[in-house]
């Protein structure tokens, strides 16, 4: 307490000066319209800037929750859109899809906790596992397109074989042309992928969208794989040399959706039985 009193005694002249300055400022503001308006406008300007900075900081701290909420909303929209498309496929008017078939795809949102893009065979780790109903063989997509397929799981985590993998193939279809080929990464650029097995007799257009075809049980048909970037000719081949811009940007992948095909096991069991009988 004595030290505090000594401080005020030593600084009494400076403290008196500050108090007199504040008092003078107060009288100037209250006795002059010009300075009063100037003070009001200036104080409001700086108060607005401070408030804007405070709001920006507050919004930034809530971005993680906002992203999580958006991912959950996209999960619900994906499920609704897929069910709608499966219930009204491109088919003769008299064809009616079975309700179980139309509702066979289920989506589970997950956060990416590890991701590689620099290797010939790349993998992704997510924070959902068998406790969340994830199992090997399920497809994985992002908000913008295809990602890969679940390779292995434990209770809380799963490892995904990325589409950026030298041995991963995806049955894909050109939207405008309607032709089906195979999308495969060539191990060079993580933003590009090849589309093979499209005949030279077919007129492929640059910019055409390429989506998952109906001839696989892992993904719903119509999930974007990429868009045609270049169309060339393979030497001594009867197929186009097609390069796609990948729909998914793997360098900033945050949330993914694991796709469960409820009828996949039933379909594959029957197909395996037929192969055995041949």
TrEMBL record:
Transmembrane ranges, per UniProt, are 12-29
Q: Which GO terms describe its biological process?
A: regulation of cell shape
* Keyword entries, A-Z: Cell shape, Membrane, Transmembrane, Transmembrane helix
Q: Which GO terms describe its cellular component?
A: plasma membrane
Entry keyword Cytoplasm:
no
Provide the Rod shape-determining protein MreC beta-barrel core domain boundaries. 112-260
- InterPro entries annotated for this entry? Cell/Rod_1 (IPR042177), Cell/Rod_MreC_2 (IPR042175), MreC (IPR007221), MreC_beta-barrel_core (IPR055342)
- PANTHER family recorded: CELL SHAPE-DETERMINING PROTEIN MREC
- Which family, according to the similarity comment? Belongs to the MreC family.
Name of the molecule in the record: Cell shape-determining protein MreC
What is the organism field in this record?
Spirosoma radiotolerans
